C-alpha cells in the first residue's frame, strides 16, 4: 500500500473486528463519524452490516457476494476522508 508507506511511523490506526466481527448499519455510521471527527489516519476493514443480532452472532453468515460498501457510510464520508 503506497499510501501507508508515505505516512509517518506509528501514525495510522488499523480497525478490524476479525472474521467473526459484525456491526449493524447504525454502528458502522457511528464509527465512521467518530473516525472522521478524530482526524486520525486509519485503515478500516469493513464488512456488510448485519440486519439482526442473530445473524451477527453467526460466524460465516456473510456470503462472498460483492457489495457496494460506500452505501453503508454517511453521505460524503469517503470524499471527506480521502487524502
UniProtKB/TrEMBL annotation:
KW Glycosyltransferase (keyword) present: yes
Entry GO MF terms: glycosyltransferase activity
Keywords attached to this entry: Glycosyltransferase, Transferase
Keyword Transferase carried by entry: yes
Stored PANTHER family: GLYCOSYLTRANSFERASE (PTHR48046:SF4), UDP-GLYCOSYLTRANSFERASE 72E1 (PTHR48046)
Name under which the protein is recorded: UDP-glucuronosyl/UDP-glucosyltransferase
Organism whose genome encodes this protein: Macleaya cordata (Five-seeded plume-poppy)
Lineage: Eukaryota, Viridiplantae, Streptophyta, Embryophyta, Tracheophyta
Amino acid at each position: 500500500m503506497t499510501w501507508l508507506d508515505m505516512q509517518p511511523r506509528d501514525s495510522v490506526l488499523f480497525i478490524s473486528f476479525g472474521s467473526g466481527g459484525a456491526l449493524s448499519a447504525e454502528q458502522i455510521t457511528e464509527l465512521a463519524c467518530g473516525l472522521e471527527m478524530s482526524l486520525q489516519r486509519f485503515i478500516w476493514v469493513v464488512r456488510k452490516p448485519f440486519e439482526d443480532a442473530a445473524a451477527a452472532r453467526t460466524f460465516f453468515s456473510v456470503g462472498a457476494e460483492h457489495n457496494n460498501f460506500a452505501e453503508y457510510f454517511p453521505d460524503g464520508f469517503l470524499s471527506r476522508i480521502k487524502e
